[in-house]
Structures are given as structure tokens and as C-alpha cells.
Design goal:
alpha/beta, TIM Barrel, 8-stranded parallel beta barrel, two-stranded antiparallel sheet, 34% helix, binds phosphoenolpyruvate, binds manganese (II) ion
């Protein structure tokens, strides 16, 4: 179902009028995790001021250590929506556990993110395949493009065709940065599938200084959009502080993207 052989033309996923996969580049920005009402209000203002049309924010966080901040849970979901709705920004947030799906539906989350660590959580994929909500499907840390597309197929097989693929860097031997951004995979995914492909340069590089150039490279490689971490005060972020852009850096990046793509 997700193959170009079955559908030659590009799929465009529309989220309250924000179209991902069409001629316009879309940038989803916001903090790694939802922290406080103030942090979320400043984040929403920064996302809007930069000209981005969607907001991200994690309420359920897949942390490597069980002693790290795990996210605010349902309270975080509510803080995210309370900040984003008045700003007119649809939200993207991660679903880790199938038992939270009803809560996500009741809160009318606009886009459900399936994180890299859950790319092959087949029961989770089947459940989001049964609903009628857009899904951002991140590529697993060590998964091939064909495994990634097969994970998308699980969602499509259930009837949900609103799928956005997201390349976020893979595990390699290199330790100088967090992950290796695989732009070749973006090209292959776009060639083999009709689904939109976005890139998350934040989790790929893992350092804020790398994000703007990786973002521009992704657009030059044909990505349909970006998922970027931004925090009103990056060094104070509770999660992924090293890779968060400030609101001013996000605005500057958006200006530079306008020069290389037909951006917002
Ligand atoms: C995230 O987007 O906050 C995240 C945890 O990403 P990934 O699943 O790509 O590590
Ligand atoms: Mn993060």
C-alpha cells in the first residue's frame, strides 16, 4: 500500500490545512518535552514567530535511563494542547503505549508520533492503523529503509493511510555526533514510497550547532519537511538540552530555508 508501484503520485497528509508532502515545506518545531505552562507558552510563541505551522512536544518520553525525567504524561498532553490551540498550531506528540491511545483520541491530538524505539512495536502500529489520525513514523535506530517501509505498511494495512515518514539518524560506528543522518535513506524512501518524508536533524546531530546545516541539507536532498527541537531557554531544557535551538535560532533557520525551498 505504501509503495510507489501502487500509487505513483505523492501522498499529501493534511492536518487542519497544513499540508505535508505538497510543494510547501513544513517545519514542526517545539521542545523535546513538555515542562511547564510558561515554557510551553514561550515555545508556542517562538514556533509561531519563526513561521512554523505545527508544534511538537513530548508528554511521554522514551528515556534511556529509568531515572531520567519520563515526561509529564497526561498533564503534559494537556499543557501542550493548552499552549498550541490558542496559537492555532496543530500538535505532534509521541504515543509509547497502546493503553494511552484512547486518551490521545479523547484529547484530539492532531498527529501521533511513533518514536524510533517503537518503529517495530507491531501491536502499536496495528492500533494506530485502525484510527483515522495522521501518524509520524520515525525510522528505528538500526533499521533498514525496507523495514521502515514495512512498519508503515502495518499502519496502512489497518486502513490508516495518513502516514509521514521521519528520518532521525541511525546508529553507526561514529561517536562524534549522536546519530548519523542518513539522507540517502530519504532519497530511497521517497523513490520507493509515495508517502511524505520529513527529517529530524535535532536527534541526528544531537548538537544545536549542527541542526541548521543538517536541516538545509535535508531539504536539498528532497525532504518534505523538518521536525526540530526548540526550547525558550535551551540550556535549561529537562531533556535533550544540547540539541535545542533557541527561538531566535529557529527563526534564523526558517529565513535561510526560504532561500532554498518554497517555505511557509
Ligand atoms: C523525540 O522526538 O523526542 C524522540 C524521542 O525521538 P526519537 O524517537 O527519534 O529518538
Ligand atoms: Mn528529544
Amino acid at each position: 500500500l505504501v509503495s510507489r508501484e501502487t500509487q505513483p503520485e505523492d501522498t499529501v497528509v493534511s492536518i487542519h490545512g497544513v499540508r505535508i508532502g505538497g510543494p510547501q515545506l513544513q517545519v514542526i518545531a517545539g521542545p523535546c518535552s513538555v515542562e511547564t505552562p510558561e515554557q510551553m507558552a514561550l515555545s508556542a510563541a517562538g514556533v509561531r514567530a519563526a513561521g512554523c505551522r505545527m508544534m511538537r512536544g513530548g508528554a511521554f518520553k522514551p528515556r534511556t535511563s529509568p531515572y531520567s525525567f519520563q515526561g509529564l504524561g497526561v498533564e503534559g498532553l494537556e499543557l501542550l494542547l493548552a499552549a498550541a490551540r490558542p496559537a492555532g498550531l496543530p500538535v505532534v506528540t509521541e504515543l509509547m503505549d497502546v493503553r494511552m491511545l484512547d486518551t490521545f483520541m479523547e484529547h484530539d491530538v492532531d498527529v501521533i508520533q511513533i518514536g524510533a524505539r517503537n518503529m517495530q512495536n507491531f501491536d502499536l502500529l496495528k492500533e494506530v492503523g485502525r484510527i483515522n489520525k495522521p501518524v509520524v513514523l520515525k525510522r528505528g535506530l538500526a533499521n533498514t529503509v525496507s523495514e521502515w517501509l514495512m512498519a508503515a505498511e502495518y499502519i496502512a494495512a489497518g486502513g490508516n493511510h495518513h502516514i509521514i515518514l521521519c528520518e532521525r539518524g541511525i546508529r553507526t560506528f561514529e561517536t562524534a555526533y549522536r546519530n548519523t543522518l542518513d539522507l540517502t535513506a530519504v532519497m530511497v524512501a521517497k523513490r520507493e514510497s509515495h508517502l511524505p518524508v520529513i527529517v529530524d536533524p535535532s536527534h541526528a546531530g544531537g548538537k544545536a550547532w549542527m541542526v541548521p546545516q543538517l536541516a538545509r541539507a535535508a531539504i536539498a536532498a528532497g525532504a518534505d519537511g523538518l521536525l526540530i527541537e526548540m526550547h525558550p531557554s535551551p540550556c535549561d531544557a529537562w531533556c535533550d538540552a544540547d540539541q535545542a535551538l533557541s527561538p531566535a535560532e529557529l527563526a534564523e533557520l526558517m529565513d535561510s530555508l526560504r532561500l532554498i525551498a518554497q517555505a511557509v
